[in-house]
Amino acid sequence: TPRATEVPVAPDGLAPVPERRALVISDIHSNQVALDAVLRDARACGGFDEVWVLGDIVGYGPQPNEVIECLRDLSAAGTVVTAVGGNHEHAVLGVYHPLGGMHSRASACADWNRAALTEASVAFLAVLPDMAEAGFRDGTPRFTLAHGAPCASASKHPRTGRRTPCRCRYDYSSDHGVLDRSMRVIGTPHLVVGHTHEPRITRFPRRRQRGGSTDIQVRENGGYAFDSGRFVINPGSVGQPRDGDPRASYAVLGLPGSGSDAITVTHRRVAYDVAAIQSEMMRVRLPLEMATRLSYGE
Known about the structure:
Elements: E1 4-7, E2 20-25, H1 32-44, E3 50-53, H2 64-76, E4 80-83, H3 87-93, H4 104-116, H5 119-126, E5 131-134, E6 143-146, E7 149-150, E8 168-169, H6 176-185, E9 190-192, E10 199-204, E11 214-216, E12 223-226, E13 230-235, E14 248-255, E15 263-270, H7 274-283, H8 288-292
Parallel strand pairs: 2-3, 3-4, 6-9, 9-13
Antiparallel strand pairs: 1-12, 2-14, 5-6, 7-8, 10-11, 10-13, 12-15, 14-15
Helix pairs in contact: 3-4
């Protein structure tokens, strides 16, 4: 049984205030309308000191430059923004195009995003690493950030078998074996990932033995305090949720100070103007199905 304590949710909807808060977002997918809603909600619920962006900033949606500019503005205003790239960044930049793994409608969206990017946006995406470390305590990072599942070396596409230049496996599997291998590769206690578009918390034993992982049920606006073990945390998707809930999904991590191993995790859902982003997608002639699915969270 995972040692997870569900802490009382404060009136603002978050767990008791930690030393620092990290806003954790993933899979924005060129949806600035959803990102604006997330930022408003997070600020209203206690704010944040850092922003962790887990890749797939672009793709699917019609606002790649707006999203990138928003992230750059956060950084310019003094917020520490740590971002990694995902498979849609790689596709848009032409680092590799996962033909056979990206369906035709997603590929069409990637092509449109590529053509729409400004030089400044391309420069922003081009320097994103596959993985990063964050959540430093006494100079030591406690979290590895990645879009997919970290690998020891260059990965292969799960369907095509084609080797890619990145060290993340872009697999929609929820298989614990994939996560177990990832936890043995990284050099930090915890892993924070995106890609699946579904919120999730998985606990592993403190020691790096194989197996022993347990999924922890994620409840909307539930605050969870963890004082032991290692965790894989997925905040879900800001711009294209796929768990049957069309609302934008994100997480807030509470980062303690010196002398504490405890962390808190709060998952949030926030409604946004889906019709507005759908209208913009239709205006620029993105595939209808990509717009329609936003209404259903699929």
